[in-house]
Amino acid sequence: MLVATKSILVVDDDEDCRIIAQRILSRAGYTVDTACDGAEGLEKAQSKRFDLILLDVMMPKLDGFEVCARIRKDKPNADTPVVMVTALDSISDQAKASESGAQWIVNKPYDSHYLLSVANHRVNQLDPGV
């Protein structure tokens, strides 16, 4: 039986961070789509179902908080796990991420093993076969 590859959307305006996350997740077997800002990320999230969305907080046009809140209101990703990636570390920023609908926060700069561990856990949390 063939197992479908899980798909992840990486939304980050920092090209280096976006490429690093894409490489880490692709090497682990995920299909990775990317967006370079919040508006593009929202557009992709509204047009295709993902198993996980990795979302930067501080971006031009639309910040990650707003993108996450909008994703939560629309299909196909209203129930998709969202992991916020941020250099912000205040309790109020963490609360705002949670209030916008994120399930987890990973601080930048992130450790590749930690990022992959969080992604694996969040993707497989919804998989009834795991």
Q: Could you walk me through the main structural features you see in this protein, from its secondary elements to its overall organization?
A:
By secondary structure, the protein is an alpha/beta fold. It has one domain (7-122): Rossmann fold (3-Layer(aba) Sandwich). Helix content is 44%, strand content 18%. The chain contains five helices and five strands; from the N terminus they run E-H-E-H-E-H-E-H-E-H. The chain has helices at 15-27, 38-47, 64-73, 91-100, 112-125, and strands at 7-11, 31-35, 52-56, 82-86, 104-107. It has a five-stranded parallel β-sheet with strand order 2-1-3-4-5, with helices on both faces. Helix 1 crosses helix 5. The model has no long low-confidence stretch (mean pLDDT 90).
Spans of at least 5 consecutive residues whose pLDDT stays below 50 are: none
According to CATH, the homologous superfamily is Response regulator
The residue-averaged pLDDT reads: 90
CATH class assignment: Alpha Beta
Helix content: 40-55%
Question: What is the count of structural domains?
Answer: 1
Taking the alpha carbons of the first and last residues, their distance comes to 15 Å
Largest sheet entry: 5 strands, parallel
Number of separate helices? 5
The helix/strand series, from N terminus to C terminus, equals: EHEHEHEHEH
Structural class category: alpha/beta
What is the name of the CATH architecture? 3-Layer(aba) Sandwich
